[in-house]
Specification:
Layout lengths: L4 H5 L16 H4 L2 H6 L5 H7 L4 H7 L11 H4 L10 H6 L28 E5 L2 E5 L26 H12 L6 E5 L8 H12 L6 E5 L2 H4 L6 H7 L5 E5 L9 H12 L4 E7 L7 H13 L3 E7 L13 H11 L10 E6 L4 E4 L5 E5 L2 E5 L5 E5 L10 H4 L12 H6 L11 H6 L37 H10 L1
Parallel strand pairs: 2-3, 3-4, 4-5, 5-6, 6-7, 7-8
Antiparallel strand pairs: 1-2, 8-9, 10-11, 11-12
Helix pairs in contact: 13-14
Bound molecules: iron/sulfur cluster.
Length: 474
Amino acid sequence: MAASKTLQALDKPVMTRAPYWADIPDEKWLDWRWQMSNRLNSFEELDAVINLTKSEKKALQSEGLFRVDITPYFASLIDPVDPGCPVRRQVIPTDREMVPFQSMMEDSLSEDKHSPVPGLVHRYPDRVLMLVTTQCASYCRYCTRSRIVGDPSQTFSREEFDAQINYIENTPQIRDVLLSGGDPMVLAPKLLQMILARLRTIPHVEIIRIGTRVPVFLPMRVTDEFCEMISQYHPFWLNIHVNHPKEITPELAAACDRLSRAGVPLGNQSVLLAGINDSVHIQRKLVHELVKIRVRPYYLYQCDLVEGSGHMRTTVARGIEIIEGLQGHTSGFAVPTYIIDAPGGGGKIPVSPNYVLAQAPGKVVLRNFEGFITTYQEPLDYDPGEIVNQENLIERRTEPGQEGILGLLGGDRMTIEPDGFAETHARGGKDHRLRSGEISDKWRPLGIGTIEHDKEEPKKLADPSLEDEQSSES
Ligand code: SF4
């Protein structure tokens, strides 16, 4: 079978390099430590490589600017004369970054609120986000953690790593640990290995993941040594972060190839960014290029309500339109899930076009990507109880307080109420002969409520067979 052009290119020493660094010897250019210590960050350095606009110059000379650092490799992908270059706009600030916008927040996902110990976010039932550093190889202008990222004084101490790991050790419901930051791949190699090794000794931690932009900003960091190290900690997954097809270079392809050969499943998370990738055609090209290098498009995020990102945000309608342009139009595994990470800490909410047009008992009316409308006839004798015996053979993972809509469907409860709902509807009145106490059989739905929040035993549903027996006895 003929190898693809991208994979053929991996055999050749390719060098994405701007003329500014033409004299740098290859050994240096390919050394990730050299790339890290020669990042562009000052106005003068950037001005020497890129034809900066007035707006970029103004931003770069502003007080309180979110950190700027760009690896020479990634800077080489920037079009020095095009201010609209999609790579450039991700890492070079403009003065629009300073403009506040309605609903913007410092910590828009309330991560710090959901952290039992510093840097460990426990938002979902069975998994945690472990922030291990505040440093990155380059800094994205829309970074959701700009409140701490880039600031070395906010980074995590050994004691804080210990507290994070102790929490994971003592919380058996955690089966999945995602390392992020900042970027875990810029950590000192020994420190990263120490964290991975400690996590691997925890019996209930089933998978370890890393979310990283290093393969995109600094593909030379993905050395054979690194791949060998992480392959000791399988099952180990890795998500990269590519926003535009221009970022998919032979160097990135080679880095992903090394990771894949080390047995690491790769996914990609993109952020939907105005003027950068908010186009069906660009997104289609992006997902096609990703699957060619064996990276599965995983999430497409709506840009968060974070300080500095106002001018990069799109409407949600645009995101839905993009998914409409992917689903059915290309391979299913190339279609990412479009996500709004809920402001206030509600977590990831998938959003998609609506394919179900109508429902009635026994029938669902659906439409496909072409507008073809069809009817799916549902079985009229389906018995959802048939699986129960098999289901009982599987250990059930309970998530007290996080049952959500599944809890309603499963009959654990009948309603989910906003905080203070009962008080609001009591209207300040006292208990009286028709309304006494919060828990009263009067409001207890028969057969609902088997979980802890219902303190009293629910009434048992009458067994019709017993009723028959009783009535025949009497
Ligand atoms: S790599 Fe990630 S953590 Fe670092 S600046 Fe970009 S978005 Fe933020």
